[in-house]
Amino acid sequence: MTRESMAEEQGGGRPTPPKDWLPGLKENAQTDVVSGLIIFLIALPLCLGIALASGAPPIAGVISGIIAGTLANLVSGSYVTINGPAAGMIVIVAGAVAELGFREALAVGVAAGAIQIALGFAKTGKLTGFFPLSVVHGMLAGIGLIIMAGQIHIVVGHENPRAHGFHILTEIPPSITDPVAETALVGLAAVLVMVFWPRLGKAATVIPAPLAAVVVGTVIALVNGAEPRLDLGGGLLQGFQTPDFSGLASAAAVKWIVLYVFVASLESLLTAEAVDKLDPWKRRSNMNKELIGKGTGNLVSSAVGGLPMIAEVVRSKANIMAGARTRWSNFFHGLFLFLFVLALPGVLELIPLAALAGILLVVGFKLAHPADFKHAWEIGRVDFLLMIVTAFTVLLTDLLIGVATGIVLGLLHALFRGATLGNLFRPVMEIVDDGDQVIVRFRKALGFHNFIPVRSILDNMPRGRTVTLDFKGVHYIDPTVLERLHDFEIDYAYDGGSVMHLGEESLQPGSHRFSTRTAPKVTV
Q: 3-state class of 434 per DSSP?
């Protein structure tokens, strides 16, 4: 793709961004306060619902949201990304709380935060490039299925049995065939509001769907007496707890630390990448600082009784759509959470749990949306298989086994496609810089499994040059590499550079722009 076509597609160079830090606060306070208020209205019911679904005190979600906005945000490497407790961590936190206890799970969060900080200083932010995108999407879909399978019980008036394996599925029919009528009416209303509210146009931009669902559900519960209701346990100040570090060296605790670090880091970095694409000023997040920021937030939040946090894509997208310009919108969202919960805890305790469960049921559906599976099918049958196997292995076993299964299958497929053991984790490439242009010559197989060195080269590429990607002699490129190279081209064009391709004519094109491309193996 030429510089002209890339510029035409992306609208020219990178716009001049707003100021950051205190100058940015002075310059953009008016818009960022409004954005922060809107995100607060979205985040409040989600913080409460995510905490309940995680088996934690509801106030733990609010504590996390406050610290995510007011502290973690200020030391993170992104600009308009919203931090906080998120659905993607429900399965991890719930498992840790069930196996270890809440205070022991807080200790896990502290340790995980410290590791994230260390990973940030070790500059490991680029490691997300290793994971095949189909497996990542499968992991998130599996988490969404688990959330749905758990919250459906609460929506119809029963407790979440927190079943495992196939029992996750077999426990659902007895609950939905024997609903508690008053409570089920609240839960169903919340689900319907979440689904149809965004279609109301202007009203939906003023009042976010989660807030509307909570209000509607609460009104119905006040009329028909539906129970149970939210219990904040004395409010914000009484919600602070200290971790119990006594079992931190146990095998169970170590397992949950690994899962905390893996999922929280991977989701946050991928979210930051996604939000960078939506940022009107096309700013690039510093992924190593993202790890440091999230690690700091997780360490502090867990140390005082809060849930772990990640960068959350839906709230971040809403933040941009609300006109956010700097990280201060995130700060104000955390500040509004603090002030509201401190001043009016009694109002929150009117909320029925079924309304919060209805919200999370829809959130879980969005994580496992059929459109994502359809997209994987369009890219290729192998990617669809990797996604669906990962999703259902996560659902029926656990997250680590699901992700490991997807990665192993991806590696086996790469070997089947002709990647050699020597080429499996190390790309064959040559860099030639002749002053006017930089030529990157690739050979053999290019896949998620050997993309990290490629990403390091691309991240450090001199800006504003002509870069030629030479694929002569490449016999296999997988969808993860194709999508990430496409993202690089777009970002590079914003800084006045251009990216040219050579040798693509020997690669058989797929049905989708990111479908696997293959060619006969060439001996070089």
A: coil
